[in-house]
Amino acid sequence: VKWQRSSGPSALIEPTTLDGETTDHCTMSGPGGGLAGTVDGSFFRTPTWVDTAKAPGRTSQSPASWTALPGKIVTGQGLVFSPNLIWFSIAVLNYLVFPYDFDKAKTFDRQWMLQRVVLNLMIVGGYYGFWSGSMYLANVTSRKFTADTRPSMFNVAHNVWYTMLGALQWSVWEILFVHMWATGKLGYTTDAEVLSSPTAALTTLAWFIVIPVWRGAHFYFAHRFIHIRALYKYVHSLHHRNGDIEPFSGMTMHPVEHLYYFSCLAPSVWFATHPLVMLFNGMHLVLSPACSHSGFEDHWQSDQFHYLHHARFECNYGSASLPLDHWFGTFREKFGDSKLYSGEATTTRASPFKIQSSALFDVYFVGSLGLFAAFGFAVAGNTTAMAIPYAVSAGLAFGPLVLAAVLYHISGDTESPRWPFHKEPLFGSLHQSFGFNAAVGFLVGVLPVYQFATALLATCSTCA
Question: Which of 26, 36, 150, 226 is the most exposed place for a label (fewest CB within 10 A)?
Answer without folding.
Answer: 150
